[in-house]
Write a structure and sequence with these properties.
The chain is mainly α and 232 residues long. Helices cover 68% and strands 2% of the residues.
Length: 232
């Protein structure tokens, strides 16, 4: 038993100082300047920040959630930048095992902050809609359904991200035994599907309202184009 434990400790130590995974045949690990999606990750973060800036500009009626969304965005950006130091965007065979452990901890934090920022941003938009587009019962119901569906879904997802493995350490430690983890692929597909549906539902509310206004069709289309510019 002692020998098995010592051998396992040696394997873990070797993994922590070596590559997080075996490189493909003919490929050597490169911990210094291996290929990376670092620039792509930074561009995605900048795009996310700019998109949020555009949305936040329209949320003066929901100051509290807007401020919380901004604070979450700052935290999200900091964690993304920190994850670049530990192998974000690199092949796992170009990342040391010790860095891979830290990266997985940061990746879990990124998932959690991203989920909370998305929730707060959507809540801010829907709170603004209450002021602009809820003169009728139909619109009030539509906004309420969207609002509470988003709150319920993202709160549940936040807990799933936080507790996706039992024990939780298994999220970043691949050497733990007798662990149970959620199917992250299924969670990502479900989240992407819900995001698409909820985004379209949020987009439909102003379109439906504007289309019913007593104004020229050209002006209606121009107004709708302003709201749909958020898709870009």
């Amino acid at each position: 038993m002692a020998q098995d434990e010592a051998r396992r400790r040696q394997e873990i130590d070797a993994w922590l100082s070596g590559p997080a995974s075996e490189p493909p045949p003919g490929v050597a690990s490169n911990f210094i300047d291996g290929p990376s999606l670092h620039d792509y990750n930074d561009g995605t973060t900048v795009g996310f920040v700019c998109d949020t800036v555009e949305k936040e500009h329209k949320m003066t009626a929901a100051v509290a959630t807007s401020v919380l969304a901004w604070l979450g965005l700052v935290a999200f950006s900091i964690v993304i930048a920190e994850s670049d130091r530990y192998g974000s965007g690199k092949h796992t065979w170009d990342v040391r095992g010790s860095d891979y452990v830290v990266y997985n901890k940061l990746a879990n934090a990124v998932q959690l902050t991203y989920t909370l920022v998305i929730l707060l941003t959507k809540v801010s938009i829907l709170l603004l809609y209450f002021r602009l587009f809820s003169p009728t019962r139909v619109m009030r119901v539509a906004i309420h359904v969207n609002l509470w569906a988003n709150v319920l879904y993202y709160v549940v997802v936040s807990f799933l991200v936080l507790l996706m493995c039992n024990p939780r350490e298994a999220i970043w430690n691949p050497y733990l035994e007798n662990v149970k983890c959620l199917d992250t692929r299924a969670l990502k597909i479900t989240s992407a599907s819900f995001n698409l549906i909820s985004d379209l539902a949020i987009l439909f509310i102003p379109i439906f309202t504007v289309w019913r206004l007593q104004m020229q069709r050209k002006k209606k289309l121009m107004t709708i184009a302003v709201f749909t510019s958020g898709l870009l």
